[in-house]
Fold this protein.
Amino acid sequence: MDSITIKDLEVQMHIGVTAAERERLQRLLISLILERDLGEAGRTDMESATTSYDAVINLVKQLLAHRPRKLIEAVANEIAETILSKRLAVAVTVEVKKFCMPNTQYVSVTIRRTQ
């Protein structure tokens, strides 16, 4: 299967288990691997491929802008379900990195979902 990778898309959102943690915006990095047939895109112009990248990036940003979440696991799952429901991929891998723990570079969760 072919794939499109979007690496370390930066978003700011309210996230955390406690209300105090959710009060402030936090930085997340989101990476996506969208598995789909790219044969047709390879035979057409590059503009349509770029538009699909923009569509996925905008979809993720809009999805996360509207309400706070408690867990990065929920963020990853919601992104995956939305991408699959809109048929933007037949399988998707989502990694969400959060910069919240002392003495660590980041904490992350990675999930893979298929249609």
